[in-house]
Amino acid sequence: MSTMPSILPKPRSAARAADFVAFVADKATEQVLKNYVLEQAMPHTYIAVGTIDDAIAHLAKLDRSPQFLLVDLQGCVMPLSDLGRLAEVCEPSVQVVTLGERNDVGLFRSLLKIGVRDYLVKPLTVELIKRTVNVTDGVVNQVMLARAGKTIAFAGTRGGVGVTTVALNVARHLAEETHRRIAYVDLNLYSGAANCMLGAQSNNGLFDVLQNVHRIDPQYVERTLVPHGTRLFMLSAELDYGAPHPYEPGALARLLALLCDSFHYVILDVAAPAEALGNEAFDHASRVYLVADRSVHSTREAVRLLRFVEDRDNNPITSLLVNNVSPASAGKVELADFTAAVGRSVLHEIPYEAKAVTVAENLGEPPRERAPNGFNQTVRRIASDLTGQRPAEAPKRAPRFRLLRKR
Ligand SMILES: Nc1ncnc2c1ncn2[C@@H]1O[C@H](COP(=O)(O)OP(=O)(O)OP(=O)(O)O)[C@@H](O)[C@H]1O
Ligand SMILES: [Mg+2]
């Protein structure tokens, strides 16, 4: 019997906006590519004269990345950093082919290292592009390192320290503001708070996927994810209390491998770090954020958990976040004492937000809080640590405007 209730989303077509997108520097190359797609009878294509910046602007508007992307490096002063920016708006699975004027082996090797599938030297011919892009098999013939999304785990030193609040808002920010594709996996199989914070209900998809791990494929996983907007996808479960845990060793690893192929970030909400599923989450995370409050118990647990997470082969980067889930009061552990006891600096201290966080959680909306160093600004900074982009500072209030309004 299926465990999926009727709220299971209807299978979405895995339609991409285009199979083949190309931005080239000159009309002659554009014409060659138009001849090529005509010959291959490719229906979903977009070919234009333009720079990498034009390609970035175009791709940032698409919900799904194309299967093949061809960009022209002619006139490009910093091709590697430009391609790095381009990678940020593409799904990891996109196969990128570059074009250029110089037969430069050094550049070619550097491009391959960052995941570009091939570098073709102009003049481009239909024959050359046919030898490179194999439309029938859906691959670029040159076999190179595949780019993959990153798995980021959030865990807490104790219950209720704000793991889900922080992780979900970072995920939401990455999806909405930085246009990354995000899969959020709530590992509390007995109903974590993440769905409630999105104003949604679980479809038990995570339970289904973990049970059927031997027959899951990208389409299966995609059907099971619940979309929130165009870039944030939720995988969660709401098992009955007392229902057996569907954990099977290796199941999470298989799921993460599939998710990392089509999402920039897979955010793992590790509800129970001590359990097998939590342990497996740490084994596959490239980065772990440990959320603590300013209590003696959290200070002690932070030491133990950091040791537990860091003592494994994948060597995840670990960062400490101190979250203030209650107002400042005497008797809390001072930040300086916390860091001294743990022997590590705190990456960010998240301020107590008296109203917006609670209201947002209950309405299933993002917190509408605009303090310059408030909750949202800290979420932005955490997201920027991940993307490597500098956070846009919160808009400063213009005092003159207030004066004018008083008149
Ligand atoms: N910075 C903050 N300011 C004010 N309230 C906060 C803050 N962070 C979290 N909260 C509140 O604290 C409560 C617990 O948060 P949350 O559910 O995210 O914790 P958790 O660590 O995921 O808990 P659990 O162990 O149940 O999974 C929520 O009501 C949330 O709104
Ligand atoms: Mg939680």
TrEMBL record:
Signal peptide: none annotated. The keyword Amino-acid biosynthesis does not apply. InterPro entries: AAA_dom, CheY-like_superfamily, P-loop_NTPase, ParA/MinD_ATPase, Sig_transdc_resp-reg_receiver. Gene3D superfamilies: 3.40.50.2300, P-loop containing nucleotide triphosphate hydrolases. Keywords: ATP-binding, Nucleotide-binding, Phosphoprotein. Residues 20-137 form the Response regulatory domain. Residues 397-407 have a biased composition (Basic residues). SUPFAM superfamilies: CheY-like, P-loop containing nucleoside triphosphate hydrolases. The keyword Phosphoprotein applies. Pfam families: AAA_31. The modification 4-aspartylphosphate is found at D72. Residues 385-407 are annotated as: Disordered. This is AAA family ATPase. The lineage of its organism: Bacteria, Pseudomonadati, Pseudomonadota, Betaproteobacteria, Burkholderiales.
